[in-house]
Amino acid sequence: MTFNLKYILSILGFICCICLQLTAALPFPQQPESAPKRHFKITVQNSGKQPQKGMILRIWGEQDEFTSNEQGVFDFEAECPEESSRSASLYFPENPSRSAYTFQLQTTTSDTILVVDGEQDILSFRQSNTLFPIQGIVKDQSGNPLAKAQISIQGTGRRTQTNASGNFTIQADYNHPIVIRANGMKNQTLNIQYFLTNPEIEKAIYMQPQNTYQVYTTVEKMPEFPGGMKAFQQYVRKNLPQQNQVKEKGVVIIQFIVEKDGSISSPTIARGFKAELDTLSLNLVSNMPKWIPGEADNGNKVRCKYSVPIQFKPKEPEAPKKVAPKKPVAQPVKPVQDSLAQDTLVSSKPQEAIKPMPADSLKTLSPTEAETVKPVTSTDSIPGTVPEQELIPAPGDSLTHPVLPPGKESPADTRQTQGNDTIPPVKKVSE
After folding, report:
1. 0.70 cut: is pTM over it?
2. I need a labelling partner for 263 at 20 to 30 A (CA). Which of 120, 243, 282, 366 fits?
């Protein structure tokens, strides 16, 4: 056992000696030299050219960070090897965990100006609808400039087109997107921030070729049935008599593609009602005349998907004729005879006995003629009066005197003969 241990130790010692000799023979690796530091001076401002003070700059892979001064300037030194790229990000102090802008340090110069708008800046520009001049160049996938490409500020009417070199300049704002159109190319919609950030660098817009087999769901000018939707409804009523021959109400929606030449293709049932009515609706749409095809923003005709509803409902019963109600006939009102207007005790026909009184002749007689007028006495007969022999005395008050038998005189009614008043005679009425 002792022999074996000594043997093992000797072998280990021999191996260690060999390792030490090999280590001494190999060259010792040198520490790589640090890359030279480069001086940076970066100014950050908003689109209104106001300094963004207090912003934070962080270089990727570094723990140090830098803060902009009152003029929005970062002034620092950092290692920036030419053989590798280094990126840096900017943060607003109110949101230090969200990057506002990222750029390559190699692309910056000693006096670089970066334009970065914060949320408050954008809100202010939106409210005031501030306009900013922007410029760019439109190219195809191969980098060739596209002439006569249309650049418009959507919803404002401001538009321009690129020159022979593909360049353009236009006034834009934060409230409306920027739309670029070119023949045979897909439209592009951009935000103004793309053009305002780092404005000294020319902004290139690369257009993608348009797929001729692409089907659009929304275009500038949608497809239309010849004559409009009213004409389409007339076509349905004429060619689908079953539309009003159902017992319950329902809708069938047919979806199809309007080709560039206006023909109908790929009709499908997007929403069914009843199997037989679905089939009738599908055949109706398949046999429609050609539509007016849809057009893209650049005026080119494109394939477009469209849907039409076909309604089924029971026929409404005819409403009964309304008979005008008869107007009530006004009945004549019978006048009520005033019993107080005549004295029944004096005469049964008072209106015939009373004659109109002649006009006052004293008003027209002269004083001499007035003296010759004979006064009327009780014995003179006055036209229209009853002769004295035909008068009978009025009976006493039956409320105070009892009724006497014929032949006996009634005592005088002392209540009716006061002073010189006399009871007027009453005319005898023949039975």
Report:
1. no
2. 243
